[in-house]
Amino acid sequence: MSIQQNTASSAVSSKTSKITQSLTAAVLGLFIVGFVGFSHVEAVHNAAHDTRHANAFPCH
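Above: the chain's sequence. Below: its structure in token form.
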């Protein structure tokens, strides 16, 4: 394998890694928002509610 091929392979691997990390973060974020938003468990709602207020994020 030449240096050019090795560099190109490394660039593709790096781009794939970034895409995978971004998609994983998006899926995890959507899961958390969906779980908390539609949860009927009072403790989950209250924890999210208190966290929003602690971060000065309006929710009412």
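The CA atoms of residues 25 and 31 lie 10 Å apart.
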